[in-house]
Structure formats: structure tokens, C-alpha cells
């Protein structure tokens, strides 16, 4: 038997993403976002959703670009800080000691210390209610040169995930099956 919980956000897991932009003055800024993910494979696109009240919102509208930075579990404090501090009030990069680098393909900074950086140009903006969704076409992906492509990348970067119900961060567990393969055992 099942019980009804009503309209709630119960998708698991949600990724822990750090979105970077330049503000009006050209200063790098970053914010943590969990409302995001892949939304199209061709062309490759990602979606992020955030509230208009965030400092990053205007930077997205004006700059028409952003990066998504995937932090490893080693940077959980910094990733959380990006979500609780406002770039309007302080320089988050100075506070965290992390390094913003100008992207090659879009006008947005990426975070040098994070193992994966996705450079995106905004191709669509949709007002949804409390949040606005930004669809970004992926122009380039950067990956740390220590990552071995012949090994599972997820196990090397150890990305963080967010559980919205308890407002907690988790690391990724072990592989349990091979996608598009294990289901063949049924048929």
C-alpha cells in the first residue's frame, strides 16, 4: 500500500551543481543549485532553475552564459558556502580560496579546483512560477587532467548529491549494475 504525501519535491538524487557567471561589473560569482540536470542530448543541453531573488539571476539574463561546475566531495564546505552566501555582499572566491578561470567558449568563469566544468550559452529562458528555468547549450566540457577516461569517472570525481527532503548532501555509492544491460535478464 502507498500513502499520499501531496505535491512535494521527491526526485532522488538531485545533483549538487555550482553555477558560475560574471556580474554586471565583470566580477566572478558562483551559486549552488540543485534544481538542474540534462535536458537534451542533441544538441547537448542542460537546465538550471533558480529564483529571481538570487544575485546570479540578473547575471544570467545579462551575460547569456554560465558554467556548471561539479564539485567533488572534497569541496562540500565550499559548495555549501556558495549556496548560503550572496555574491552581492561578498566575493565568494576570495572567501573560499577557489580559483575562477575565464572560460574559452562562453563569457563565464569556471572553477579550477572542481573536476568537471561545463560551459553553456543560454538558448531559452522559461518562467515557471517561483523559479525561472535557463536552458544552456553545452559549448564545451572541461575535465581535470588527472581523471583517467578508461576508469569510471564518477568514482574518480566523487560528486555530491543533494536530498531535498532532509536538506543534506551525500556522496555516490558503489555501482550496482550496468545500464541498458541488466534489464535484458528479464526478457
Automatic annotation (TrEMBL):
Cofactor(s) listed: FMN
Pfam families: Flavin_Reduct
Molecular-function annotations in GO: FMN binding; oxidoreductase activity, acting on the CH-NH group of donors, NAD or NADP as acceptor
Residues of the signal peptide: none
Domain of life: Bacteria
Flavin reductase like domain sequence ranges: 9-147
Keywords for this protein: Flavoprotein
Family that this chain belongs to: Belongs to the flavoredoxin family.
Name of protein: Flavin reductase family protein
SUPFAM superfamilies associated with the record: FMN-binding split barrel
InterPro entries for the chain: Flavin_Rdtase-like_dom, Flavoredoxin, Split_barrel_FMN-bd
Amino acid at each position: 500500500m502507498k500513502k499520499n504525501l501531496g505535491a512535494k519535491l521527491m526526485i532522488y538524487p538531485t545533483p549538487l551543481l555550482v553555477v558560475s557567471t560574471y556580474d554586471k561589473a565583470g566580477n566572478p560569482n558562483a551559486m549552488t543549485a540543485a534544481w538542474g540536470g540534462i535536458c537534451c542530448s542533441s544538441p547537448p543541453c542542460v537546465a538550471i532553475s533558480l529564483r529571481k531573488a538570487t544575485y546570479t539571476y540578473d547575471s544570467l539574463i545579462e551575460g547569456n552564459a554560465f558554467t556548471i561546475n561539479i564539485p567533488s566531495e572534497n569541496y562540500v564546505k565550499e559548495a555549501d558556502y556558495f549556496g548560503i552566501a550572496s555574491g552581492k555582499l561578498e566575493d565568494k572566491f576570495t572567501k573560499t580560496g577557489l580559483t575562477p578561470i575565464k572560460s574559452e567558449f562562453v563569457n563565464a568563469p569556471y572553477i579550477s579546483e572542481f573536476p568537471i566544468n561545463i560551459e553553456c550559452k543560454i538558448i531559452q529562458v522559461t518562467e515557471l512560477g517561483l523559479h525561472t528555468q535557463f536552458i544552456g547549450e553545452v559549448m564545451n566540457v572541461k575535465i581535470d587532467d588527472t581523471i583517467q577516461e578508461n576508469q569510471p569517472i564518477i568514482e574518480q570525481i566523487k560528486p555530491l548529491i543533494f536530498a531535498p527532503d532532509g536538506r543534506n548532501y551525500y556522496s555516490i555509492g558503489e555501482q550496482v549494475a550496468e545500464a541498458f544491460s541488466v534489464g535484458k535478464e528479464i526478457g
